[in-house]
Amino acid sequence: MQKLNTIKRVKLAAVTFLTVISFACLRAEQTAANREQEQPRRTLEFVPVTAPLETRAGTDDGAAFAIQFLGSTHGSLEPCG
Amino acid sequence: MGGLARRVSYEKLFKEKVGGIPVLVVDSGNSFASEGNVHGALRPDVRVKDGWILKSYDDFKVDIINVASPDLRYVSTLLAKPESSSRATAQPALKRLISANTTSDSASAMSLPPFILRDLPARNAGAKPVRVAFVGLTEPSQAMPRGFKINDAVETARRIVPEARKQADVIIVLGYLKAETASRLATQVDGIDAIIASNSQSDGAYFTPPLTVGQTLILFTPYETRMLGELRAYREASGKYSLRTRFITLDETFPNDAAATQLATSALEAEEGTRSQSKKTLEGWLETSRSAKPADGAVAAYASSRACAQCHQTQYIHWANSGHAHATDKLPPRWVEFETSCLNCHATGQRTDATGKVELARLQSVQCEQCHGPGGEHVQKPGKGYGLISNAQALCITCHTMEASPKFDFQSAWAKIKH
To answer: Does B23 sit within 8 Å of A66, measured CB to CB?
Structure first.
């Protein structure tokens, strides 16, 4: 009987241990995901063509300045398609 | 995608939505048209088109314009002194052109600045403005205008970037550069914060992703600016700037700005007008030169080779079998390249008087009198002394220039036509 109780205790301890580990891992993943979301800026952004026009200039995110750049237009002023 | 009218529309949206961010617009180069004629000079319609491109840089301001080697075909025509200073007054965009590694061996050509500094207002009250230096670099190209040379981009940057760095908080290279040259610059030249390179050559690969090499961010302008690039800089606590890049596709959902559309339409009309004028002028000249006759009773200054043949039959036959006898035949298939200056060497008797007024050639192809001089009086009163040429080589190379006849060899050419 005592032996049976010991086995039950060991099983309970193991399940508790695994549960704690799983929660800890999940928590760590969530924290990393949150950190990612909290990043104020991504270094590269493609403004989606599906985005409403008025949102395509983005937001004033505190940038000190912006440089808009173009090139390789080969003398064309015309839109192509 | 792309196009001036959509770009201007985005710039207006930017101003409206995030107008507090100080902004500059820059062009990394390869932005003028460069289609040349058979001799390598810009075609007349292309010159007109490029004039409109330059105008667009003033009407819809582009703050810094890097001169790529293909752009030199047009830009070199604007740098000739002394007109260059008056041109720059009329078209201020000329003062915003840069190139650190383009040099001219001619003292008569204005040189381009290697870099330009721009101050952007600080966003915090009382803080110093941000000073940005833009350094211009280009790869060489095969067809360079005479007298211009492209020096090694990395070697030049090693010399110029430290000089710019002393005066600026941020260094940005604008370059017409291959990806590997941009990487070498980032690796071998300290102090460059970002390289913005025009290197896209085809529709198939119109976007090259940015990359970071060492401390330098390398960006590539998408082919034909189908996407507008936007680099945003953030001042960190350390005083350095971190960079973020956005790409905005200039698709049809962007409204076309009305004023920019008007400019693009006028440019297209001017270009097409130039082509029709070239065709009309050539056809008109072919018609009149076929039936060129002097006024009644007048002695024609030019008599034509047929008149020469009356006495100089051997020479006439020799000439009739030469390329000179068919020099005008080259013009009609290339009517789009035609301008009256073609007749200086593809016809006979074109003259420019002291005031610069051009009297168009009266005879087709390169006839006897193109080299020997007007023979009308000689035909009337034949005698010795007419048509002697003291220096044949000097005469030949007035038309057979390095540009027009790169393979021309006087000795072998003379052997063929000697008479």
So the answer is: yes
**How crowded is the C-beta side of B109, counted as CA atoms within 13 Å?**
19
Assess contact for B227 and B250: CB atoms under 8 A: yes
pTM of the model: 0.86
What is the pLDDT at residue A35? 46
**pLDDT 10s digits, B38-63:** 998 999 999 999 999 999 999 999 99
Chain A residues in contact with B17 by the CB 8 A cut-off are 54, 57-59
Q: Minimal Cα–Cα distance from A51 to chain B, Å?
A: 10
Q: Of B232, B238, B265, which to mutate for an interface test with A (greatest number of A Cβ within 10 Å)?
A: B232
Tokens read off for B12: 């207006």
Among all residues of chain B, which has the CA nearest to that of A52?
Answer: B253
**Spatial separation of the C-alpha atoms in residues B214 and A59, rounded to whole Å:** 29
* CB distance B349 to B331 below 8 Å: no
When pLDDT is cut at 50, 70 and 90, the band that residue A78 belongs to is confident
Strand B148-150 relative to strand B102-104: parallel, antiparallel, unpaired? antiparallel
Which residues from A are below 8 Å from B242, CB to CB?
Answer: 41
**CB contact (8 A) between residue A72 and residue B225:** yes
Please, are residues B409 and B417 in contact by the beta-carbon 8 Å criterion?
no
pLDDT tens readout for residues A11-40: 766 666 666 666 555 555 555 444 444 444
Instruction: Tokens 């590694």: give the residue.
Output: B101
Which region holds residue A49: left if phi is over 0, alpha if psi is between -120 and 50, else beta?
alpha
| CA–CA separation, B164 and B167 (whole Å) | 5
- pLDDT surpasses 80 at B66: yes
User: Which among A43, A56, A71 has the least Cβ separation from residue B30?
Assistant: A71
- Count CB pairs under 8 A between chains A and B: 207
Query: If you ran DSSP here, which 8-state letter would residue A60 be given?
Result: -
